[in-house]
Amino acid sequence: KRWHSYARTQRDRVRCIVVTRDPVDRLRSHYTYTMSDGDYDLRELGQEMKDALSTKSALRIMWNRMGRESMLRSHEYLTSALSSGCEQIRFEGFREDFNNTISSIFRAWNVNPDVKSDLMDIATNHDIGRLSHSELKANHHVSTKKFSQNSKHEIIKAILEDEEISKVMELQRRELYYN
């Protein structure tokens, strides 16, 4: 909270951005990441989800253990940053048009034009869209590539069919301008 108060007093000098992601996709990502064994601290939960009888049951296990709190807390931070005047940068933009999304950040931060090209060269090293299929599969942060399209659709369907979760997602999508 202190950062936002400070940022409001520094509008002409401090330019903040906030990277948002469609809440449904973010929750689906929590699900796939937890199931992918990428994080040691989530392996027990991931195993419990794998042992569940259905995607809906696995989602509910994750939601009750960490998903609800994670989604509510992070949403509170995101909406607070937006209401404080931070510029919204959509996470999806990194996948859809990486260079333009990075350029949006540079504009928000009023980056000196003389260094933009050098900074873009550095940034493109982090564009996962430029990684090969084998590099993506090896990257533990890119859990979505370890799941079939059908599996991802099943997860999203479970999110949208769960009464409590879908209401939270609907509200968060609206408040983050994803509707």
Question: What's the arrangement of secondary structure elements?
Answer:
Layout: H1 2-9, E1 17-20, H2 23-35, H3 43-50, H4 55-83, E2 87-90, H5 92-96, H6 98-108, H7 113-124, H8 133-138, H9 149-161, H10 163-175
Parallel strand pairs: 1-2
Helix pairs in contact: 2-4, 2-9, 3-4, 4-10, 6-7
Q: Could you give a short description of this structure?
A:
By secondary structure, the chain is mainly alpha-helical.
Largest sheet: 2 strands, parallel
Low-confidence stretches: none
Radius of gyration: 18 Å
Structural class: mainly alpha
Describe the structure.
- This protein is mainly α and 179 residues long.
- 66% of the residues lie in helices and 4% in strands.
- The chain is built from 10 helices and 2 strands, in the order αβαααβαααααα.
- It has a two-stranded parallel sheet.
- The protein starts with a helix and ends with a helix.
- 17% of the residues are buried.
- The model has no long low-confidence stretch (mean pLDDT 90).
Key terms:
10 helices, 179 residues, mainly alpha, two-stranded parallel sheet, single chain
